[in-house]
Amino acid sequence: MDIMRKFIFLLAFFLSPGIIANAQNVVFKASAPEAVAMGQQFRLTFTVNGDGKELRLQEEIRDFEVLMGPSQSRSHSTRIINGQSTTETSTTFTYVLMAKQEGTFTIPPAVVKVNNSNYTSNGLTVKVLPADQVAAAGNNSQGQEGNTPAVSDNDIFMRMTVSKTNVYEQEGFLVTFKLYTLVDPTFRNVKFPEFEGFLAQEVELPENKQFTLENYNGRNYQSVVLKQAVLYPQRSGKLTIEGGRFEIVVRVPTQQRVRSIFDDFFATYRDVNKTLTTPPMTIDVKPLPSGKPASYSGGVGDFTMTAAISSDHIKANEAVTVNIQINGSGNVRLVKNPEVIFPNDFDVYDPKVETNIRTNASGASGSKTIEYMAIPRYGGDFEIPAIQFSYFDLKSDSYKTLTAGSYRLHVEKGEGGDASAPVVSNFGNRENVRYLGQDIRYLKVKGFNFISNSDIFYGSFMYFLCYLIPAILFIVFFFVYRKQIRENSNLALVRTKKANKTAVKRLKIAGKLLKENKREEFYEEVLRALWGYLSDKLNIPQANLTKDNVEAELTLYGVDEALINEFMEILNTCEFARYAHSQDHEEMDKLYEWTVDAIGKMENTIKK
Fold this sequence. Notes:
The protein is of the alpha+beta class.
């Protein structure tokens, strides 16, 4: 009997890990649209990756009318890996709901039983928008009977919005480009502004951008954010964010006068080209108030500072480090390093800086760590004064100064040290060390060698040649320098000469992005290289560059039509690829080589 009990126990022991693993991997999730319109039915689903039973809500759904449910469905899938089969079961419970009133409402979590254990789902928040206020009779985007179908400005448009229009210099604010549409567009040419006068830190958006329902001016649109960036104005005054330009294609069904039973199966469509633009926006940038502290480091926002020393008791020739960490929100990346003043008989090395900054829709926040290292060469007691860091606080509109330290450091005599050579110390950073007791030098009284007058260098041919050669070099340098000044004064000529060099730098960045397989950033960097190259080469501001005037200017320069078409094709490929489905890595490689070759051909054609 004991043997039988042991056998059953061992059998249960070896089988239980699989059961426990399944129990630990149970996922019970609720899902519903983030936003719905009044009168619109929507589905609320609860899905569990197991044989779920006895679904019950923790609270009654009061804010929505339950039209149907819960209906239950199960799915089974079997996988065979290395000869072992695994069967997975999924259970889905579905409700059909409709909102009773406008507002934002919560749907409570639900509880389900799997293998005699209860699991709780997540709760949901659903925003109920007002119903479309546009009368159906007055909303006909296809015009009169027989007319060519059209897409109105109310069917699809782009908005550029900013979180603030009145900011301080170096104060970050958010700019957002959002698409509103009632149709299904395809992007062909996308051009965002360059943000001249601002330092831009782009907000990382999901790779697969999802449309959400949004009510705007009485209509419910499918909206999606295409680009977000936190901008930091670099100077005061009125700065303008130029508008964007977006070329799209919309496929719309054509209106047929004669209808047949085949019309429902073989509908005809027409591509409609449309250009969306966003108007420029002016930002009023105020200068920072006067009275900046001496320790002001360019920070604007809300910061804290901590500092620590590695040890306060070391030996001579051993390293000591002071670590400073600045945390907060604002222009963390732009703040200067606080100064640490070491005694002047310390060898001080360049600081090591590490940043950990996150940029999202609410701005940039994170930390900046600065590590200073110094090595004392002599023993003694030293003091490192307090470290100060000043910034402009946006909440109080005033400057604030943070202080950490000071530190007292005892340095013992190191091995081989010379205690007889005292050190004159002060706190002038990076000054030379002055030694006392070593200022006597003995005269040399033996080992003299005499030379004849004929061997004297003074008055010889080589002596005069040493004067003549520098004089000739000075004259040559003078004329070359004057020529360079004249050329540099011609800004258009300077930009034209540096066009290829600037494009090569940007293409090197694109090459790194290509190796890292960052598709969207790669195409964006290639676009910047091409538009920047054309702007510098043709001496046309980027804001005024269009494909039409680029073709016209290149034709005036005598560029071959095939090379012009090659440039236009590269631009179209990059602009389309950023918003199309993922491209093959081999295609990105070919595009990179194609771009390098095209710029090389253009350099050989337009020589300045």
